[in-house]
Amino acid sequence: MGSASNWFTRAVQGLRSFAYAGEGERPRVGVALGGGFARGISHIGVLRVLEEHEIPIDFIAGTSVGALIAATYASGVSLQEMERRAIDTHFRDFGRWTLSRMGMASNERIEDFLHKFTPANLFSDMKIPLTIVATDLISGESVHFTEGELSPALRASCAYPGLFLPVQYRDRILVDGFLTETVPSPAAKEMGADIVIGVHLEPGLLDTRPRNTIEVISRSFSIIQMAATQSWRAETNVLIEPDVHHILWDDFAKTPILVAAGEAATKDALPQLKAALAGKLAGYTGPERRAVHR
What we know:
Layout: H1 2-19, E1 29-33, H2 42-52, E2 59-63, H3 65-74, H4 79-86, E3 96-100, E4 103-106, H5 110-115, E5 130-136, E6 142-145, H6 150-157, E7 167-169, E8 172-176, H7 185-191, E9 195-199, H8 213-227, E10 238-240, H9 255-283, H10 286-292
Parallel strand pairs: 1-2, 1-9, 2-5, 9-10
Antiparallel strand pairs: 3-4, 5-6, 5-8, 7-8
């Protein structure tokens, strides 16, 4: 199945190259989907508008819930199916409470949750090249998964510190990718994208009291992120920020509102996006692109 998928990807890229051969090669577009628990459902709205306006996606990268959306989309699942299932999602679908000094829950169920959408198991099964981002808890560095099994990469990327247990994989202790790449624009650039569309789910600070330990942890990280220098922004050409800060982390029932917020923010960004594509197309002739992407 993996070899067939790779053949399909090469064929699509070949057709794209042929289509643009007469006017200089177009820039390659990468989409970087950030984390945000239930707020990540707004990514569906973003991708829908990109599809409707025929904005090509050559690469896709994801952090945390963005990794789940990216993997599902890259495997070929329709946005309609993703939205249909999202509204019926609950924490128990991907988390299981446990007693541990390292976290409050295990996210082992996320593998079964992914397989509700797709039978894909490997990065090579993807129809769009995919990178999943996690964080090495020892070195403090980003880890970019681009090959092998999807499951450990996805679990690691979604291992929110304090809530989910860290994931031990190949001598590494891994946690949520948002610690190093809240929006995985560096990963999309690394894949070869000339233009990166980053989707940031601004957590904001709700004006209500925290309900539980999870919200204390979440809001604490939000404060850190707001105060910190976010280097991923320098790697982002077009930034889309759906207005979802008022949605609670586990409020999957607000799927229609979340999808609509993603659509609205992407429509607002279309002029900037099309200008970026036009500008890059003017500046990236065939020989120059071959020098960049040899």
